[in-house]
Design brief:
The complex is a heterodimer. Chain A is α/β, with parallel strands linked by helices. Chain A is built from 15 helices and twelve strands. Chain A has one domain: TIM Barrel, CATH 3.20.20. Chain A has a seven-stranded parallel sheet. In chain A, α10 links the parallel β8 and β9. The longest helix of chain A is centred in the middle third of the chain and has 25 residues. Chain A is globular, with a radius of gyration of 20 Å. By secondary structure, chain B is of the alpha/beta class. Helix content of chain B is about 55%, strand content about 10%. The chains are: A alpha/beta, B alpha/beta. Chains A and B meet through β6 and α8 of A and α4 of B.
């Protein structure tokens, strides 16, 4: 049996490993309530015991809020650390404010700090300092403990588009893309530099893979036309990728996340250096088709449905999907399995467990 | 730049934000058309935008920008004429739209809202994370005949049933048609929860509402 690192690197290099590598879907970070439900189901308290049981081959390097922010923050379960703001709102380190939804399960954007800014105001708006004490402490601890055992993935999610609209407001930022080029360019250029700085830190700490990405896909189409993506985001993602690959002396692998349907820009993503594509929701893009068209250049990551099979299927349905995915997309390596996103509350825990148990038992004999 | 109904319509259709607003301002200044004709131009332009979206030529961001442009134009018109109560044309109905309780997604719902308004419906968009009681309150207040519900998360889909139950509790279920949509909804789920129809896309939603409006007018 291969070690976790051997298994993953074989897969990333499009060679067939002993079994398909397995990843988390950020469960402990994005859906702590579901992660806790898994722990209760398995009767374990320790996160590491769960990851080992599930056979997860990766560990995450995440940038934390600063010590100063944590002093004024409160833990809002299951969301994380936020500063209490007016009228029950939650505020993050960027000044973005959120409202907890009526069912208590989600956060809704409520206030965007750059909603009314003009291009000159951008100079006054400070991004959270990367040098703040506490920023990378946990990431460093994780790397020290696991860098020889597991493959380390550094988080750079919401790289450009998503964070730009979180700061600006969704409709407002979309309108900026059509009418306010100067603003868009300035904000995105600042985010490029910031993301590069984070990426370098994560590489220094020991990241093997950098998870970049922005949600550009909806269920059946893209949010913006491909020509707008190519105008504003493609060149900037290329700068980030080229800079970080060069900084790592080409050792780092580039992972790109976008929910939904983004097939029109997949060739562009490959062109700019993306090597791993996540999550390829089967409701939106057919993983077998993506494998056929791009499988020699792209590693498919995730692909197991959180919209249909995991929440609504039986354990048998999950097993069938996992096995058929491995058979259709695991040839010659290039497949890492995970749920296509953190499973939502109400997903039968036995289905989540079945995904991981089935994949661990299915030895690749292609 | 030329001014006039055709130029304004083209500018909206082609998402020429600044041009459309300049043309509108000039037309208002010159008083070349009546206020009702402005609404007709907007409606026709949004219909074309909707058609382009249906054909895959336009994307979600194009629709959102078109919607924002129309809002700016309406502000200019209101500034010039004062607040105008726009009566819905016959034979359309009033539609209450909402993303159900717990659901924060509204892009799809906003597209449906825009398409419905372009087609002459009066839309009461309650926004996101809307409890069932608020939806029923709005249906009664505005005497809406159609309710459109959006649920994009597997956790929020069951709220559709709660809305239907609330309509039944209020004794108005039989007076209202319910169409549901969103990534987490399927035809089977719509049927299971007692909705009258399922729209896979925003355009499906529009066509279903148009069919019902026609039935209502008979």
């Amino acid at each position: 049996m291969l070690s976790h690192r051997e298994r993953v690197f074989k897969t990333l290099n499009h060679e067939e490993p002993d079994r398909v590598p397995l990843d988390d879907a950020w469960m402990a970070y994005v859906r702590l309530d579901v992660w806790d439900a898994i722990k209760r189901y398995l009767h374990v308290e320790d996160d590491e015991k769960v990851r080992r049981y599930l056979g997860i081959d990766f560990r995450y390097l995440v940038m934390d809020p600063s010590e100063k922010f944590k002093k004024n923050a409160k833990f809002y379960y299951p969301f994380g650390l936020f500063k209490p703001a007016e009228s029950g709102l939650l505020e993050d380190e960027w000044g973005v404010k959120y409202q907890i939804t009526g069912n208590g399960l989600y956060l809704r954007y409520y206030y965007h700090p750059l909603a009314n800014a003009d291009v000159d105001d951008l100079d006054q708006y400070e991004f959270p300092s990367l040098d703040a004490p506490g920023r990378f402490d946990e990431a460093e601890k994780t790397a020290k403990k696991f860098k020889d055992l597991y493959v380390l993935e550094g988080f750079l999610h919401q790289t450009l588009f998503e964070w730009a609209w979180a700061l600006r407001g969704f409709n407002r930022f979309l309108r900026d893309l059509y009418t306010n080029e100067r603003f868009v360019n300035k904000l995105l250029d600042r985010l490029v530099k910031y993301r590069i700085d984070i990426g370098k830190r994560l590489i220094d700490i020991g990241a093997d893979i950098l998870q970049l990405g922005d949600d550009f896909g909806m269920q059946t189409g893209m949010i913006v036309p491909p020509h707008i993506w190519r105008k504003y985001f493609k060149p900037r993602m290329k700068i980030i990728i080229d800079t970080l690959k060069s900084y790592s002396r080409n050792s780092i692998y580039i992972f790109y996340h976008s929910d939904g349907y983004i097939e029109p820009i997949i060739p562009d993503l490959i062109e700019i250096g993306v090597q791993i594509l996540n999550p390829i929701q089967p409701e939106c893009m057919n993983p077998a088709e993506i494998k056929k068209k791009y499988g020699d250049k792209l590693v498919l990551h995730a692909t197991i449905s959180v919209q249909t099979t995991l929440p609504r299927g039986t354990v048998e349905d999950v097993k069938k999907e996992v096995i058929s995915r491995i058979r259709e997309c695991g040839r010659g390596g290039g497949l890492i399995l995970a749920p296509t996103h953190a499973p939502q509350p109400g997903t039968p825990i036995e289905n989540i467990i079945a995904l991981y148990e089935t994949a661990q038992k299915f030895a690749l004999k292609m | 730049m030329s001014y006039g109904a055709s130029a304004l319509k083209d500018a909206i259709i082609n998402l020429k934000f600044d041009d459309a607003l300049k043309i509108c301002e000039e037309m208002l200044k010159q008083g070349v058309i009546r206020v009702e004709e402005f609404f007709d131009i907007i409606s026709q332009a949004l219909n074309v935008v909707g058609e382009r979206y249906e054909k895959g030529e336009y994307f979600v961001s194009d629709l959102i920008v078109a919607g924002d442009l129309v809002k700016e134009i309406l502000k200019l018109i209101e500034l010039h004429y004062g607040k105008i109560e726009r009566k819905p044309k016959e034979p359309v109905a009033r539609v209450v739209l909402a993303s159900v309780r717990g659901d924060i997604h509204d892009i799809g719902k906003s597209i449906v809202s825009m398409l419905l308004q372009a087609a002459g419906f009066e839309v009461i968009d309650l926004g996101v994370d809307v409890p069932p009681e608020e939806i029923v309150k709005a249906v009664k207040k505005y005497n809406a005949k159609i309710v459109g519900l959006s649920a994009l998360l597997t956790t929020t889909v069951p709220e559709i049933k709660n809305v239907i139950l609330e309509l039944e509790k209020a004794g108005i279920r039989k007076d209202v048609k319910v169409v549901v949509g969103g990534a987490a909804v399927t035809e089977a789920i719509a049927k299971e929860y007692g909705a009258d129809a399922y729209g896979r896309t925003a355009v499906d939603g529009l066509k279903i509402c148009q069919k019902w409006a026609e039935e209502l007018s008979k």
